Amino acid sequence: MDANMQGRGPLVWAVVGSDIGPLLLAATAEGLVTVAFHATDAVRDRTLDRLGSRLGAEPVHAPDSPLLTEAIRQLSAYFSGERQVFELPLDWSLSSGFNRQVLRELASGVPYGSVVGYGDLADRVGSPGAAQAVGIAMGSNPLPVVVPCHRVVESDGGIGGFGGGLETKRRLLALEGVLPQPLF
Protein backbone atom coordinates (compact mmCIF):
# COMPACT_ATOMS: atom_id res chain seq x y z
CA MET A 1 0.00 0.00 0.00
CA ASP A 2 1.31 3.47 -0.84
CA ALA A 3 2.02 5.67 2.20
CA ASN A 4 0.17 8.57 0.61
CA MET A 5 -2.99 6.46 0.66
CA GLN A 6 -2.77 6.47 4.45
CA GLY A 7 -2.17 10.21 4.58
CA ARG A 8 1.21 9.96 6.33
CA GLY A 9 3.43 10.78 3.37
CA PRO A 10 7.03 9.60 3.47
CA LEU A 11 8.64 7.48 6.15
CA VAL A 12 12.10 8.93 6.73
CA TRP A 13 14.77 7.65 9.08
CA ALA A 14 18.21 8.33 10.47
CA VAL A 15 20.53 6.80 13.03
CA VAL A 16 21.99 9.26 15.52
CA GLY A 17 24.58 8.85 18.25
CA SER A 18 23.65 9.43 21.87
CA ASP A 19 24.99 8.89 25.37
CA ILE A 20 23.08 5.60 25.46
CA GLY A 21 24.24 4.35 22.07
CA PRO A 22 22.93 4.74 18.53
CA LEU A 23 19.24 5.57 18.20
CA LEU A 24 17.10 4.95 15.14
CA LEU A 25 14.63 7.78 14.57
CA ALA A 26 11.81 7.53 12.06
CA ALA A 27 9.17 10.09 11.17
CA THR A 28 6.14 10.57 8.96
CA ALA A 29 4.55 13.82 7.89
CA GLU A 30 2.51 13.63 11.12
CA GLY A 31 5.58 13.52 13.36
CA LEU A 32 8.16 11.32 15.00
CA VAL A 33 6.84 7.76 14.85
CA THR A 34 9.58 5.72 16.48
CA VAL A 35 12.79 5.81 18.47
CA ALA A 36 14.67 2.50 18.68
CA PHE A 37 17.59 1.73 20.98
CA HIS A 38 20.83 -0.05 20.07
CA ALA A 39 20.47 0.77 16.37
CA THR A 40 22.99 -1.69 14.99
CA ASP A 41 22.55 -2.61 11.33
CA ALA A 42 20.47 -5.67 12.26
CA VAL A 43 18.20 -3.76 14.68
CA ARG A 44 17.85 -0.92 12.19
CA ASP A 45 16.92 -3.22 9.31
CA ARG A 46 14.46 -5.28 11.37
CA THR A 47 12.80 -2.15 12.79
CA LEU A 48 12.54 -0.46 9.39
CA ASP A 49 11.06 -3.59 7.79
CA ARG A 50 8.43 -3.77 10.52
CA LEU A 51 7.68 -0.03 10.30
CA GLY A 52 7.42 -0.06 6.53
CA SER A 53 5.01 -2.96 6.68
CA ARG A 54 2.83 -1.48 9.44
CA LEU A 55 2.69 1.98 7.90
CA GLY A 56 2.52 0.88 4.29
CA ALA A 57 5.53 2.98 3.30
CA GLU A 58 9.03 2.39 2.04
CA PRO A 59 11.52 3.77 4.60
CA VAL A 60 13.89 6.35 3.13
CA HIS A 61 17.23 7.20 4.74
CA ALA A 62 17.03 10.98 5.08
CA PRO A 63 19.06 12.32 8.03
CA ASP A 64 18.70 15.89 6.72
CA SER A 65 14.91 15.66 6.30
CA PRO A 66 12.98 18.51 7.92
CA LEU A 67 10.78 15.77 9.40
CA LEU A 68 13.76 14.61 11.52
CA THR A 69 16.00 17.63 12.07
CA GLU A 70 14.08 19.05 15.03
CA ALA A 71 13.85 15.65 16.74
CA ILE A 72 17.60 15.16 16.27
CA ARG A 73 18.29 18.64 17.66
CA GLN A 74 16.03 18.17 20.70
CA LEU A 75 17.44 14.74 21.52
CA SER A 76 20.97 16.11 21.33
CA ALA A 77 19.99 18.95 23.68
CA TYR A 78 18.35 16.45 26.07
CA PHE A 79 21.49 14.31 26.27
CA SER A 80 23.67 17.37 26.81
CA GLY A 81 21.43 18.47 29.72
CA GLU A 82 20.11 21.54 27.90
CA ARG A 83 16.52 20.31 27.36
CA GLN A 84 14.04 18.77 29.77
CA VAL A 85 10.83 18.85 27.72
CA PHE A 86 10.35 17.57 24.19
CA GLU A 87 8.21 19.75 21.96
CA LEU A 88 7.79 17.59 18.89
CA PRO A 89 4.88 16.51 16.74
CA LEU A 90 4.34 12.80 17.38
CA ASP A 91 2.70 10.24 15.13
CA TRP A 92 0.79 7.98 17.55
CA SER A 93 -0.28 5.50 14.87
CA LEU A 94 1.81 2.64 16.31
CA SER A 95 -0.15 2.59 19.57
CA SER A 96 -3.86 2.50 20.28
CA GLY A 97 -6.45 2.06 22.98
CA PHE A 98 -5.22 1.67 26.55
CA ASN A 99 -1.56 1.75 25.51
CA ARG A 100 -1.96 5.08 23.73
CA GLN A 101 -3.89 6.53 26.68
CA VAL A 102 -1.14 5.49 29.11
CA LEU A 103 1.65 6.76 26.86
CA ARG A 104 -0.04 10.13 26.36
CA GLU A 105 -0.47 10.51 30.14
CA LEU A 106 3.16 9.59 30.64
CA ALA A 107 4.31 12.13 28.03
CA SER A 108 2.31 14.98 29.52
CA GLY A 109 2.13 14.12 33.20
CA VAL A 110 5.50 12.80 34.38
CA PRO A 111 8.07 15.60 34.22
CA TYR A 112 11.82 15.41 33.82
CA GLY A 113 13.59 14.34 37.00
CA SER A 114 10.62 12.52 38.47
CA VAL A 115 9.31 8.97 38.46
CA VAL A 116 5.91 7.34 38.76
CA GLY A 117 4.91 3.82 39.78
CA TYR A 118 3.19 1.46 37.37
CA GLY A 119 0.12 1.37 39.63
CA ASP A 120 0.06 5.15 40.03
CA LEU A 121 0.10 5.56 36.27
CA ALA A 122 -2.76 3.06 36.00
CA ASP A 123 -4.72 5.14 38.53
CA ARG A 124 -4.07 8.32 36.52
CA VAL A 125 -5.75 6.84 33.45
CA GLY A 126 -8.72 5.58 35.43
CA SER A 127 -7.69 1.92 35.58
CA PRO A 128 -6.78 1.12 39.19
CA GLY A 129 -5.23 -2.30 39.51
CA ALA A 130 -3.89 -2.27 35.95
CA ALA A 131 -0.21 -1.93 36.87
CA GLN A 132 0.71 -4.98 34.81
CA ALA A 133 -1.13 -3.57 31.77
CA VAL A 134 0.82 -0.33 32.24
CA GLY A 135 4.02 -2.39 32.15
CA ILE A 136 2.91 -3.92 28.86
CA ALA A 137 2.17 -0.42 27.52
CA MET A 138 5.66 0.69 28.54
CA GLY A 139 7.15 -2.31 26.73
CA SER A 140 5.28 -1.40 23.55
CA ASN A 141 6.25 2.29 23.63
CA PRO A 142 7.39 3.17 20.09
CA LEU A 143 8.85 6.51 21.25
CA PRO A 144 11.10 5.86 24.26
CA VAL A 145 13.08 8.79 25.69
CA VAL A 146 10.64 11.26 24.04
CA VAL A 147 7.72 9.47 25.72
CA PRO A 148 9.69 8.77 28.91
CA CYS A 149 8.89 5.18 29.87
CA HIS A 150 12.22 5.14 31.73
CA ARG A 151 10.46 7.26 34.39
CA VAL A 152 8.09 4.41 35.35
CA VAL A 153 9.37 2.35 38.28
CA GLU A 154 8.15 -0.25 40.75
CA SER A 155 6.23 0.93 43.81
CA ASP A 156 8.73 -0.77 46.13
CA GLY A 157 11.55 1.37 44.78
CA GLY A 158 12.81 -1.16 42.24
CA ILE A 159 13.79 0.13 38.84
CA GLY A 160 11.41 -2.18 36.94
CA GLY A 161 11.97 -3.41 33.41
CA PHE A 162 12.99 -1.56 30.27
CA GLY A 163 12.99 -2.46 26.59
CA GLY A 164 16.33 -0.73 26.06
CA GLY A 165 17.92 -2.70 28.90
CA LEU A 166 18.29 -1.85 32.56
CA GLU A 167 21.67 -0.17 32.09
CA THR A 168 20.09 2.22 29.57
CA LYS A 169 17.26 2.95 32.02
CA ARG A 170 19.77 3.66 34.78
CA ARG A 171 21.69 6.03 32.53
CA LEU A 172 18.54 7.95 31.56
CA LEU A 173 17.42 8.24 35.19
CA ALA A 174 20.93 9.34 36.21
CA LEU A 175 20.92 11.96 33.44
CA GLU A 176 17.72 13.34 34.94
CA GLY A 177 19.14 13.29 38.47
CA VAL A 178 16.84 10.55 39.74
CA LEU A 179 19.63 8.00 40.37
CA PRO A 180 23.30 8.49 41.17
CA GLN A 181 25.47 8.57 38.05
CA PRO A 182 26.34 4.95 37.21
CA LEU A 183 29.98 3.93 37.08
CA PHE A 184 31.01 2.72 33.62
Question: What is the CATH architecture term of the largest domain?
Answer: Orthogonal Bundle
Class inferred from helices and paired strands: alpha/beta
Please give the count of helices: 7
CATH topology of the largest domain: Arc Repressor Mutant, subunit A
Order of helix and strand elements from N to C terminus: HEEEHEHHEHHEH
Relative strand content: 5-15%
Give the beta-strand count.
Answer: 6
Q: Which shape, going by the Cα principal axes?
A: globular
The CATH superfamily label of the largest domain reads: Winged helix-like DNA-binding domain superfamily/Winged helix DNA-binding domain
Number of folding domains? 2
* Unreliable spans: 1-6
Major beta sheet, specifics? 4 strands, mixed
Question: What's the mean pLDDT score?
Answer: 92
The strands making up the biggest β-sheet line up spatially as 3-2-1-4
Calculate the terminal CA-CA distance, rounded to whole Å: 46 Å
Q: Write down the CATH class of the largest domain.
A: Mainly Alpha
Rg measurement, Å: 16 Å
Could you characterize the architecture of this molecule?
The chain is an alpha/beta fold and 184 residues long. The protein folds into two domains: 3-79, Double Stranded RNA Binding Domain (2-Layer Sandwich), CATH 3.30.160; 97-175, Orthogonal Bundle (Arc Repressor Mutant, subunit A), CATH 1.10.10. It is built from seven helices and six strands. The protein has helices at 3-6, 41-55, 66-79, 97-109, 118-124, 131-139, 166-175, and strands at 11-16, 23-28, 31-36, 59-61, 116-117, 152-153. The strands form two sheets. It has a four-stranded mixed beta sheet. The protein has a two-stranded parallel sheet with strand order 5-6. Strand 2 (23-28) and strand 3 form a beta hairpin. Helix 4 crosses helix 6 (131-139). The model is unreliable at 1-6 (pLDDT under 50).
